[in-house]
């Protein structure tokens, strides 16, 4: 029997706690694949008193029997990846099953430089809030056919191609009034990185399909989330890739018919990092309280996240875009510490109410949320082992979410640990 593929995706602006669900599914999977994005994203897994932060390597690496595959749709900063490998080794994590696609593109120093330059050139409210890790410029070079794939990075061709790229990019930096990069220094440095990563690089497309042919099961790990999608998110305040279901296929080589369950991950509230519209944001004491209760600071950047109520209109949009088959809702324990909780069930403007999401910036800036209120104070739910054991007030809140989007909740996060998860 051919293996199956399950997908875990973010439904809002990222940071939803995808790692917990990925960790659970990876424990019984034969491979875990990261399909899109770069080290501008991260997953955190808590095991006992140990916290593991992942930025490029699929978190399935924590299971010694699971291949951790960095797919062709990922852009790779080799220095960051090597640091992550070394960190895992220091924690006695076996990384022998790490696999890197030969088609994945390499983030070069000029990409990182231009990421900062472009953001610096944007004025006032036009700033995007990029992490300045070179992600966007690397994808831009990929599309302009100026990129460096892993297969070139580890080959004898790398030095000549890299030198030409440095020279061309230095001309642009000089014309813009910025300091040129030291070509020879970086080529020497990156050739050493290539030696370290070469043993992990292979043709992942055929590797993945051979696993499926052998009846092996696969989990695809989403990075970022739906409302940050380059096409379907709140453009231009988005990431540079497709963290939606389409990106899973193009970022791995897996065909549509191979995909089984598609789990959309969310929090019992919402959050966002960086600039951009955010209808349910709370710029008040409640928003501050949610941030502190939920420890809402970025895994990759450490930046404080903007916090607000859960937006069911946006969630329905994510369900449509990704063909979600199930929901995974985290931080139920966190939202349950508030006395009153609200859910956004529509948007209102000039007396009109709509329940369809729209990424148009003017729409998002002018419309206001319509809320339903629920009782909080769920009490301690950390020992609940099933949905039925949850307090009625908690079930009432979760039931409304299911009812609105017509998608069943399959996973409920009731704490930070990997074991703090109710599976339905």
Topology at a glance:
Elements (H helix, E strand, L loop, with lengths): L4 E6 L7 H9 L4 E4 L8 E5 L2 E5 L12 E4 L4 E2 L1 H13 L7 E4 L3 E2 L2 H13 L13 H9 L6 H4 L4 H18 L7 H15 L3 E2 L1 H10 L4 E4 L23 H6 L8 E9 L2 E3 L12 H9 L12 E3 L1 E2 H11 L3 E5 L1 H4 L4 E10 L2 E3 L6 H6 L1 E8 L16 H14 L3 E5 L7 E3 L1
Parallel strand pairs: 1-10, 1-11, 2-5, 2-10, 5-7, 6-8, 7-9, 11-15, 14-16, 15-19
Antiparallel strand pairs: 3-4, 12-13, 16-17, 16-18, 19-20
Could you explain the architecture of this structure?
The structure is a single chain. This protein has 424 residues and is an alpha/beta fold. It folds into 3 domains: 5-101 and 202-262, Adenylosuccinate Synthetase, subunit A, domain 1 (Adenylosuccinate Synthetase, Chain A, domain 1, 3-Layer(aba) Sandwich), CATH 3.40.440; 105-196, Adenylosuccinate Synthetase, subunit A, domain 2 (Orthogonal Bundle), CATH 1.10.300; 266-423, Adenylosuccinate Synthetase, Chain A, domain 3 (Alpha-Beta Complex). The protein contains 14 helices and 20 strands. A 10-stranded mixed β-sheet has the order 9-7-5-2-10-1-11-15-19-20, sandwiched between helices. Strands 14, 16, 17 and 18 form a 4-stranded mixed β-sheet that branches. A hairpin with a 2-residue loop joins strand 16 (340-349) and strand 17. Helix 3 (109-121) packs across helix 4 (135-143) and helix 6 crosses helix 7 (183-197). The longest helix is centred in the middle third of the chain and has 18 residues, at 158-175. It is globular, with a radius of gyration of 22 Å. The two termini are 26 Å apart. The mean pLDDT is 93.
């Amino acid at each position: 029997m051919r293996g199956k593929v399950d997908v875990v995706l973010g439904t809002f602006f990222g940071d939803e706690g995808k790692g917990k669900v990925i960790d659970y599914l990876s424990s019984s999977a034969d491979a875990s694949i990261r399909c899109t994005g770069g080290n501008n994203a991260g997953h955190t897994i808590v095991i006992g008193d140990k916290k593991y932060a992942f930025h490029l390597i699929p978190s399935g690496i924590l299971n010694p029997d699971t291949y951790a595959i960095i797919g062709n749709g990922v852009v790779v900063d080799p220095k960051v990846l090597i640091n992550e490998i070394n960190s895992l080794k220091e924690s006695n994590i076996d990384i022998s099953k790490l696999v890197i696609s030969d088609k994945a593109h390499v983030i070069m120093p000029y990409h990182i430089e231009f990421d900062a330059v472009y953001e610096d050139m944007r004025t006032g409210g036009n700033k995007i809030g990029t992490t300045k890790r070179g992600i966007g410029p690397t994808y831009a070079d990929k599309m302009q056919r100026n990129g460096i794939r892993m297969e070139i990075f580890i080959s004898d061709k790398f030095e000549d191609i890299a030198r030409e790229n440095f020279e061309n990019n230095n001309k642009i930096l000089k014309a813009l009034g910025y300091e040129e990069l030291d070509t020879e220094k970086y080529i020497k440095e990156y050739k050493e990185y290539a030696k370290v990563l070469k043993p992990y690089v292979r043709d992942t497309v055929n590797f993945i399909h051979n696993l499926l042919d052998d009846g092996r099961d696969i989990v695809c790990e989403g990075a970022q989330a739906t409302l940050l999608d380059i096409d379907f998110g709140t453009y231009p305040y988005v990431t540079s890739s497709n963290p939606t279901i389409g990106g899973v296929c193009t970022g791995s080589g897996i065909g549509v018919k191979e995909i089984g369950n598609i789990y959309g991950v969310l929090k019992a509230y919402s959050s966002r990092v960086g600039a951009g519209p955010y209808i349910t944001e709370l710029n008040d004491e409640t928003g501050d309280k949610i941030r502190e209760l939920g420890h809402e600071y970025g895994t990759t950047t450490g930046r404080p996240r903007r916090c607000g109520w859960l937006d069911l209109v946006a969630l329905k949009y994510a369900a449509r875009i990704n063909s979600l088959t199930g929901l995974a809702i985290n931080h139920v324990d966190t939202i349950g510490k508030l006395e009153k909780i609200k859910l956004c069930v529509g948007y209102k403007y000039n007396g009109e109410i709509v329940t369809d999401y729209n990424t148009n910036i003017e729409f998002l800036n002018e419309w206001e949320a319509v809320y339903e209120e629920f009782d909080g104070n769920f009490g301690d739910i950390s020992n609940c082992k099933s949905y039925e054991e949850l307090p009625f007030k908690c079930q009432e809140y979760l039931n409304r979410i299911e009812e609105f989007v017509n998608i069943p909740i399959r996973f409920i996060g009731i704490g930070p640990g990997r074991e703090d998860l109710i599976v339905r």
